[in-house]
Description:
The protein is of the alpha+beta class. The chain contains 4 helices and 3 strands, in the order H-E-E-H-H-E-H. The relative contact order is 0.22. The model has no long low-confidence stretch (mean pLDDT 91). It holds the Pfam family BolA.
Amino acid sequence: MELAAIEELIESHIEDADATVSRPRTVDENHEDDHYAAVVVSPAFEGKTLVKQHQLVYDALGDHMTTDIHAMELKTYTPEEYASLEE
Length: 87
C-alpha cells in the first residue's frame, strides 16, 4: 500500500489529523511484509487514553489492517503534545 494512501485514510477519518507514514524497515521486494510506522497529530486525541487514540487510527484504516498492512507502529499526539516535542 502506498504511504500517501495510508496518510489519506487516517487524515480523512480523524478530525484535523496530520499523519506522516513511513516504512521502518528496508523494503525487500521478495519478502515484503508490509510494516509501517505512523506519527499522527490530532486534537481528536485530547482526553483519550493511548489505547483509545490508537483505536481511532486502526478504525480509520479499517479492513486494510487485515489485508494490506501487516503491522503499524503508532505514535499519536495532540497538537500541544507534539509542539512540546519540538521545544
